[in-house]
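Marked as duplicate of an earlier ticket. Keeping the data here for the record.
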Amino acid sequence: MDREWRVVISNEAAARIVSACFDEGTVRALSPDGALNFMRMMFEPTQMRPRIRNWTFVGPRFLARLHREAAGDSESPSSALLRELAPTAYCGQRPNEDFETLAPTVPLEISIDGSTLRLFNTITTFGTPQDVALQELRIEMSFPADRETDLALRALRDRG
């Protein structure tokens, strides 16, 4: 993802999960400039948020990440997304962790096709690179947290 949280490149597994969670019209609405916005996708209130079984845990952590990035630049894309998404996030209280010590992984539980995928997600940034383009890059990765999720992901892959 770039500094505006737009998906720059993704793999087939991510595309399958997005396809299982959203209809085409919603994906287009979340991609007005041709690139899917990760944060808008996660906070989408009708198709994604109802699927996230642990939203009251996950939502505040995504908001905390936006807040942390916005704290350094009030005109940043993260600041704009925070102003846009926070008022309708409906995710309960702010997380106990402060913005400086966000956990390196976030457990995510998503309901897809009658199964609950239990994933742990990481979002990696490069803090002091020599290349500005690299500094603005985020790498989000999801891993199955249990055998059932691994099997459900394989089944989703096999269905194409």
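See parent ticket for discussion. The beta strands are 106-112, 115-125, 138-144.
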